[in-house]
Automatic annotation (TrEMBL):
Domain Peptidoglycan beta-N-acetylmuramidase NamZ N-terminal: from-to ranges: 56-254
Alphabetized Pfam families for the sequence: NamZ_C (PF20732), NamZ_N (PF07075)
InterPro entries named among the record's database cross-references: NamZ, NamZ_C, NamZ_N
Protein name: DUF1343 domain-containing protein
Length: 409
């Protein structure tokens, strides 16, 4: 494949020789950032020549886009030889509900084989990678330890290292990149919703996080993955970046994305976070809170989002956070523990609040929190300040360690 041919194809696609995308002029914590933020995928001139002549495997989902088009479709149209697609939770095209196992398939649009990384296995096999010369990782993260794409990143890096394949990461901004907060994961509680000894909000992009996985020797047997990263242009961690595409079905608004680091803890409780509504991770409630709160919502099965949600077809009473001023989170640079403390105090049947079997949710509370202490502290009536003090010195130690892997200020 010749670069001149690629340039001609790009010109044909866009009509002016460059990727079409919506400018993202974002606010920083201290003012307005005037330059356009450009994700790695949109900087095709920096990596198209590197893909030339290679058989490409891609770890992608609907958030993986070049301009306004799915990156697989764009790159295939540009003549890139994509031989295999690897899909994370929710699948390559993003039509699977949360937690639903996804089977291997063939993408009907492109005819390319799709290997599920959220089905029988979460790690590409040697057979999966045999026909691949170079792997490309392009998934939008949201900056929270619970997000399963971090486990996917680890497993893909490990498979690449073990099979002598390079991994090209097309980096994207972290919408919660301003925040580094929460208890550091106790590795005794390691799971798919907590894979590394990091706090709840890690404050890193995928490219930075991948460098940390390598640098801290977290891959099996200390193997190192050969990485090539296309950084985000004109980006720093204090920028408030609005995602152009929903990163997953139940993070379908910017509000939910900014609330997610604080609200996902409720997945290990008896409290619904609004799965089964069109505004998940923006509300909190339970049928037993009737009379204590005026606001209510009623979860229902929604295909591709939450088909059998907690408290389906039952009115849940609680907090409406759809209009909550998320600048409070940005200003404090902290997750909000107040909601967890409030809902525990309000709930009448305390013994059920953290009962995972009763709640039938997807995450055990201790695994989500990363520690057994938080549950005990809430039950004991500890204040938020007292709880935060228990996160030290590990949180400060992580912040110091994190510095050496940052690509952005």
């Amino acid at each position: 494949m010749k670069i001149a041919v690629l340039s001609l194809l790009m010109l044909t696609l866009t009509g002016r020789g460059e990727v079409q995308h919506q400018p993202n002029h974002e606010h920083t914590l201290s003012g307005i950032h005037k330059k356009e933020i450009i994700p790695g995928a949109d900087q095709t001139e920096k990596y198209l020549p590197y893909l030339s002549g290679k058989k490409i495997g891609m770890v992608v989902n609907p958030s993986s886009r070049i301009g306004n088009t799915a990156s697989v479709d764009s790159l295939k149209a540009l003549g890139v030889n994509i031989v295999k697609i690897f899909g994370p939770e929710h699948g390559f095209r993003g039509d699977a509900s949360n937690g639903a196992k996804v089977e291997d398939s063939t993408d009907p649009k492109t005819g390319i084989q799709v290997v599920s990384l959220y089905g029988k296995t979460g790690k590409p096999s040697a057979e999966d990678l045999a026909a691949v010369d170079l792997m490309v990782y392009d998934l939008q993260d949201v900056g929270a330890r619970y997000y399963t794409y971090l486990a996917t990143l680890h497993r893909v890096m490990e498979a690449c290292a073990e099979n002598n394949k390079e991994l090209l990461i097309l980096d994207r901004p972290n919408p919660n990149g301003y925040m580094v907060d929460g208890p550091v994961l106790d590795m005794k509680l390691k799971s798919g919703i907590g894979f590394h000894p990091v706090p709840i909000a890690h404050g890193m992009t995928v490219g930075e996080y991948a460098q940390m996985i390598n640098g801290e020797g977290w891959l099996a047997n200390g193997v190192k993955c050969k990485l090539k990263i296309i950084p985000v242009a004109n980006y720093t961690h204090d920028m408030m970046y609005t995602l152009p595409v929903h990163p997953s079905p139940n993070l379908n608004t910017q509000q939910s994305i900014l609330l997610y680091p604080s609200l996902c803890l409720f997945e290990g409780t008896i409290i619904s976070q609004g799965r089964g509504t069109y505004f998940p991770f923006s509300v909190l409630g339970n049928p037993d809170l009737k009379g204590k709160y005026d606001f209510s919502f009623t979860p229902a099965g929604i295909k591709g989002m939450s088909e059998t949600p907690l408290f389906q077809d039952r009115a849940c009473y609680g907090l409406d956070l759809r209009d909550y001023d998320t600048h409070k989170l940005v200003k404090s640079k902290r997750i909000n523990l107040g909601w967890l403390i409030e809902m525990y105090k309000a709930y009448p049947y305390k013994e059920r609040f953290f009962d995972f079997k009763q709640s039938k949710q997807i995450g055990n509370f201790d695994k989500l929190a990363g520690t057994t202490e938080l549950k005990e502290q809430i039950i004991a009536g500890k204040t938020e300040d007292e709880i935060r003090k228990s996160w030290e010195p590990k949180l400060s130690q992580f912040k110091k360690m994190r510095q050496q892997y940052l690509l952005y200020k």
